[in-house]
Amino acid sequence: MNEGQRVRRPGGRSARVVAQVHQAVTDLILERGYGHFTVGEVAARAGVADSSIYRRWGSLETLLTDVALTRLNAQSPMPDTGSLAGDLRTYAAQVAREITGSDGPAVLHLAVALSSRGQQGLQAGADLRAERTRQLQSMLDRARDRGESAPDALDVLDHILAPMYIRVLFGMVPLTPDYVDGLVDRLL
Amino acid sequence: MNEGQRVRRPGGRSARVVAQVHQAVTDLILERGYGHFTVGEVAARAGVADSSIYRRWGSLETLLTDVALTRLNAQSPMPDTGSLAGDLRTYAAQVAREITGSDGPAVLHLAVALSSRGQQGLQAGADLRAERTRQLQSMLDRARDRGESAPDALDVLDHILAPMYIRVLFGMVPLTPDYVDGLVDRLL
Question: Where does the record place the HTH tetR-type domain (chains A, B) (predicted)?
């Protein structure tokens, strides 16, 4: 039976395990950075068996991606301000804040690290992007439904997110509000 | 006396040491990846004393940056085709080829790694970017001298290089010629 397809009940033992494992991963990332701990260390820290982690997530890469996505969705939810310009400015400012925060580049370094972790890592990275792209696409679709003309999701990646990501990855910070707004205005 | 400011004679013992050390670094990068070897291991591989490396380069970060820049200048020299569109298209295609080659993302991963190696790493990364930006600026200045209107060097980073870098770092390859030309055309 495939654990990943089992319907999860909110609350209960299952939710507690997820919360404990996520917390353990978050702590280990803060202490050591992505890529510097094993499934066994996560399990020990969370007080669960290694096998529970493998059964639920399949691999360290998938677990890391799940944590990253949960974190992104909590800290950078897709805005709905009523206009595309407003949505994109709010979203870009959230991303800028997130990636320049105290442990901010962590998700970014994860996305980069995944691409050099073989097929499982590439798949985990693709899943992470697919989910965020799906959310971004909803924002763009809402704009089109209102009659606004909207760029493609990949244009948002290339011309708003990529410049901010690279500046942070290269240590070219801070990202000023003027700079971030400028990226949005230029794309629109 | 500051070794870094000493004039280097072409040829001779000095040039041999540089060549041997560069080769050792290139081999170790291919075998292990950036960040997974020490100055001592480079010295052993190159057949020189650790102190020779520290005297000449000061730190592993500075040495890695020197190797990266030498490599970039050899493989992606700045083109001079007579038009800005031609120059930028040629340059973008070179960069795309370089970063998607067999050990291609290596320089990219170096630039990312440097930003998390403290002050010396940040400085080395800044030096690497400053040198490449200076070369890019010459290309843009030549265009302006011919009467063409040219973007800023940072716009080239944000809207041509950053999208390609992020796609490679995230494993979203290949970079098709249409995609790469499209980035240039959009900026111009």
Answer: 15-75
Here the tokens at position B136 are 């890019």
Query: Any idea where the domains of chain B sit in the sequence?
Result: 3-58, 68-187
Report the amino acid identity of residue B72.
L
- Which two three-digit tokens encode residue A139? 């924002």
ipTM of this complex: 0.81
A122 CB within 8 Å of a chain B CB: yes
Give CATH for domain B68-187: 1.10.357.10
User: What's the Rg (C-alpha) of chain A?
Assistant: 18
pLDDT band at B5 (very low <50, low <70, confident <90, very high): very low
How does pLDDT run across B16-51, given as a tens digit for each residue? 999 999 999 988 887 887 768 899 999 999 999 999
> Minimal Cα distance from A155: which residue of B?
B163
Spelled out in words, what is the top-level CATH class assigned to the domain A3-58? mainly alpha
Same fold, A3-58 and A68-187: no
B155 contact residues in A (CB cutoff 8 A): none
Average pLDDT over residues A91-96: 93
- Could you tell me the two tokens for A130? 């697919």
